[in-house]
Fold:
Amino acid sequence: MKRQIAVVAGSATVLGVLTAVASTAARPDDDPVRLAATPEAVQVVGLPCLPSSFQLGMTNIGSADLYADVELAADGPVVLDRRLVSSWLPAWEPDHTVNARVGVTAPRDAEPGSYAVRATTHGAEVTVPVEVLPQPPKGSGDDLALGEQAVASSTHANFDVCGAVDGNTNSEQWDTLTGWNDGTSGVFPDTYDVALAEPAPISRVETWTLDSTRYPAARYGLRDFDVQVRVGGAWRTVHAVRGNTAGRVTSTFAPVTADAVRIVGLASNNRDYSRLIEVQVFTG
Ligand SMILES: [Ca+2]
Structure:
């Protein structure tokens, strides 16, 4: 006991000392919780709609049920969507891992580099390396919508509103959260907005609706929709698409300086949902 007190004596506060001593006294040294992360390392880009995550795995390898509090901390510019994961961990046999999703983001001005997330509980710790990647180019010929903040009138529970700005246009991967599906079956219009990082003289929008082998656009894609741009806070239609059966629709128009783009879904070919696999915005 003397040695334990000596170890924590360097703590900055009296509260810290009391907490440390209390927890040391209450728990055995060999706390039977094991922590793991899947994947073991994470990459993140400092854009609002390119979220990363890992699954925190908590395993009780002991013979008694327990309640675990796992504290999470990130260094550098890395931001976590939770600081604490609490879970009841029954002493299942064989050992059973309980997983909790931890969202990882970085601000737009984050310095690219190597950082880490640490998850700790009594007697166990796991470190998750986090690589903050450089920003993708957003110049002429680049997709200005990539990773930017998307907002929709509604989003089906099985989808992520960011799926249609994640850079993936492959409809065959529709079920991997790379598409957006509205949440109001049979009710139109639906809107999907992307806010650009800054106003830009845009002249082309590529709208990718669902078009896979199993779900062809002619049966499941957006049939009627308006492409709009936001100028001075007002939405302006730059292309009215009607009777579409293609997976990709290119809208070109005279350059207009706008700070957001909206797809207004008016009807789909099977009359239930608006579905987008990607929305891309270009200045040229
Ligand atoms: Ca996508």
